Amino acid sequence: MKDLRIEIDDKSGFCFGVVRAISEAEKALAGGETVYSLGDIVHNRIEVQRLEKLGLSTVTHADMPRLTGRRLFIRAHGEPPTTYARAAELGIEVIDATCPVVARLQARVVKAHERMRPAGGQVVILGKRGHAEVVGLTGQVPDRTIVVEGEEDLSQIDFTRPVYFLSQTTQSIALFEALGAEMRRRAANPADVHIDDTICRQVSSREQHLQEFARRFDAVVFVCGRKSSNGRVLFEVCRTANPRTCNIEEAAEIDPAWFEGAESVGICGATSTPKWLMQEVADRIGKIGKGK
C-alpha cells in the first residue's frame, strides 16, 4: 500500500439541481439570518451539517405554523402546490430552489392526469415511496398516482385500462425500460401503455461512466448519504462492476483492511455528494497508504 494510487472521479458529485440549490441557500444565508429548509436540503448528512453552521435550519411541514414572517427554503426535490398555498396563508416567504428538471416533470405529471382522466386511465410513476421528489410529484393533483418500485408493485395496476408511465428523475433507466416492457406485455392492449422517460440524463449518464470507472481500480470507495436514493442506485452500479466497492458516508468510516493488496483506489459518489467530502476521503486513504 506504500505507493497506493488514489483517484477521485471527476464526474461524481453534485448534479446541476443540487449545485443550484446549495448556491441559492448560501446566497440566502449570506445576510446572517436563519433560513428554514423544508426537509434536508440534500441527502447528505455531512453537507447538511456544514450549511447548518451557516444558519440553515431543517424543519418539517408540521413546523410551518411557527414560521410566519420567516424564510422557507424549498429544496431541489420540489413540493406539491399545497405547500406553497400553506406558506402564503401563513405569511411565509418562500425561496424556491426546485430543480428545473423536476419542475418540468411535475408539469408532465399534471398533463398525464389530464390525458388519462377522460379515458379512465392510470398514472404510474417509478420511484421510491416517501422520497421527497415522489411526494411532490404525486401531490401535483388530487387524483391517485400509483408509485411502483419494482415488478412486484405492478399488481396495483389495472391492465384493462390505459396507463401513463413516468419516472422519478434519478431512477435507473434499465429498470424503467424493463418495467415499461412488462407493462406492455401484461396490458390488454399494449398501445394503451404510454411510456414517458423522464429520467434526468445528467444523472443517468453516470451509470455507464461509473461502471467503467470502477473497473479501473483494485478497490473503490463510494461516498454518499444514507438517505440518498440516487446513491443506492449508483453504489450498486459500482459494486456490480467491481465487487471490492465499499459504501461510506464520511471519511471516519474508512477501514484500512479494504485496501490490503491494492495498488489503486477509485473514489466516487452520488449526485448529493460534495466534492470536498470526496477529497477528505482521498486524504484519509492517502494517509493510510503512507502508514499514518
From TrEMBL:
<feature type="binding site">
    <location>
        <position position="15"/>
    </location>
    <ligand>
        <name>[4Fe-4S] cluster</name>
    </ligand>
</feature>
<feature type="binding site">
    <location>
        <position position="230"/>
    </location>
    <ligand>
        <name>isopentenyl diphosphate</name>
    </ligand>
</feature>
<comment type="similarity">
    <text>Belongs to the IspH family.</text>
</comment>
<protein>
    <recommendedName>
        <fullName>4-hydroxy-3-methylbut-2-enyl diphosphate reductase</fullName>
        <ecNumber>1.17.7.4</ecNumber>
    </recommendedName>
</protein>
<feature type="binding site">
    <location>
        <position position="77"/>
    </location>
    <ligand>
        <name>isopentenyl diphosphate</name>
    </ligand>
</feature>
<feature type="binding site">
    <location>
        <position position="131"/>
    </location>
    <ligand>
        <name>(2E)-4-hydroxy-3-methylbut-2-enyl diphosphate</name>
    </ligand>
</feature>
<feature type="active site" description="Proton donor">
    <location>
        <position position="133"/>
    </location>
</feature>
<keyword id="KW-0479">Metal-binding</keyword>
<feature type="binding site">
    <location>
        <position position="43"/>
    </location>
    <ligand>
        <name>isopentenyl diphosphate</name>
    </ligand>
</feature>
<feature type="binding site">
    <location>
        <position position="230"/>
    </location>
    <ligand>
        <name>(2E)-4-hydroxy-3-methylbut-2-enyl diphosphate</name>
    </ligand>
</feature>
<feature type="binding site">
    <location>
        <position position="230"/>
    </location>
    <ligand>
        <name>dimethylallyl diphosphate</name>
    </ligand>
</feature>
<feature type="binding site">
    <location>
        <position position="131"/>
    </location>
    <ligand>
        <name>isopentenyl diphosphate</name>
    </ligand>
</feature>
<feature type="binding site">
    <location>
        <position position="43"/>
    </location>
    <ligand>
        <name>dimethylallyl diphosphate</name>
    </ligand>
</feature>
<feature type="binding site">
    <location>
        <position position="169"/>
    </location>
    <ligand>
        <name>(2E)-4-hydroxy-3-methylbut-2-enyl diphosphate</name>
    </ligand>
</feature>
<feature type="binding site">
    <location>
        <position position="272"/>
    </location>
    <ligand>
        <name>(2E)-4-hydroxy-3-methylbut-2-enyl diphosphate</name>
    </ligand>
</feature>
<feature type="binding site">
    <location>
        <position position="229"/>
    </location>
    <ligand>
        <name>(2E)-4-hydroxy-3-methylbut-2-enyl diphosphate</name>
    </ligand>
</feature>
<feature type="binding site">
    <location>
        <position position="229"/>
    </location>
    <ligand>
        <name>isopentenyl diphosphate</name>
    </ligand>
</feature>
<feature type="binding site">
    <location>
        <position position="77"/>
    </location>
    <ligand>
        <name>(2E)-4-hydroxy-3-methylbut-2-enyl diphosphate</name>
    </ligand>
</feature>
<feature type="binding site">
    <location>
        <position position="228"/>
    </location>
    <ligand>
        <name>dimethylallyl diphosphate</name>
    </ligand>
</feature>
<keyword id="KW-0411">Iron-sulfur</keyword>
<feature type="binding site">
    <location>
        <position position="229"/>
    </location>
    <ligand>
        <name>dimethylallyl diphosphate</name>
    </ligand>
</feature>
<feature type="binding site">
    <location>
        <position position="77"/>
    </location>
    <ligand>
        <name>dimethylallyl diphosphate</name>
    </ligand>
</feature>
<feature type="binding site">
    <location>
        <position position="272"/>
    </location>
    <ligand>
        <name>dimethylallyl diphosphate</name>
    </ligand>
</feature>
<feature type="binding site">
    <location>
        <position position="228"/>
    </location>
    <ligand>
        <name>(2E)-4-hydroxy-3-methylbut-2-enyl diphosphate</name>
    </ligand>
</feature>
<comment type="pathway">
    <text>Isoprenoid biosynthesis; dimethylallyl diphosphate biosynthesis; dimethylallyl diphosphate from (2E)-4-hydroxy-3-methylbutenyl diphosphate: step 1/1.</text>
</comment>
<keyword id="KW-0408">Iron</keyword>
<feature type="binding site">
    <location>
        <position position="200"/>
    </location>
    <ligand>
        <name>[4Fe-4S] cluster</name>
    </ligand>
</feature>
<feature type="binding site">
    <location>
        <position position="228"/>
    </location>
    <ligand>
        <name>isopentenyl diphosphate</name>
    </ligand>
</feature>
<feature type="binding site">
    <location>
        <position position="131"/>
    </location>
    <ligand>
        <name>dimethylallyl diphosphate</name>
    </ligand>
</feature>
<dbReference type="Pfam" id="PF02401">
    <property type="entry name" value="LYTB"/>
</dbReference>
<feature type="binding site">
    <location>
        <position position="272"/>
    </location>
    <ligand>
        <name>isopentenyl diphosphate</name>
    </ligand>
</feature>
<comment type="pathway">
    <text>Isoprenoid biosynthesis; isopentenyl diphosphate biosynthesis via DXP pathway; isopentenyl diphosphate from 1-deoxy-D-xylulose 5-phosphate: step 6/6.</text>
</comment>
<keyword id="KW-0004">4Fe-4S</keyword>
<comment type="function">
    <text>Catalyzes the conversion of 1-hydroxy-2-methyl-2-(E)-butenyl 4-diphosphate (HMBPP) into a mixture of isopentenyl diphosphate (IPP) and dimethylallyl diphosphate (DMAPP). Acts in the terminal step of the DOXP/MEP pathway for isoprenoid precursor biosynthesis.</text>
</comment>
<feature type="binding site">
    <location>
        <position position="43"/>
    </location>
    <ligand>
        <name>(2E)-4-hydroxy-3-methylbut-2-enyl diphosphate</name>
    </ligand>
</feature>
<keyword id="KW-0560">Oxidoreductase</keyword>
<keyword id="KW-0414">Isoprene biosynthesis</keyword>
<dbReference type="InterPro" id="IPR003451">
    <property type="entry name" value="LytB/IspH"/>
</dbReference>
<dbReference type="GO" id="GO:0051745">
    <property type="term" value="F:4-hydroxy-3-methylbut-2-enyl diphosphate reductase activity"/>
</dbReference>
<feature type="binding site">
    <location>
        <position position="99"/>
    </location>
    <ligand>
        <name>[4Fe-4S] cluster</name>
    </ligand>
</feature>
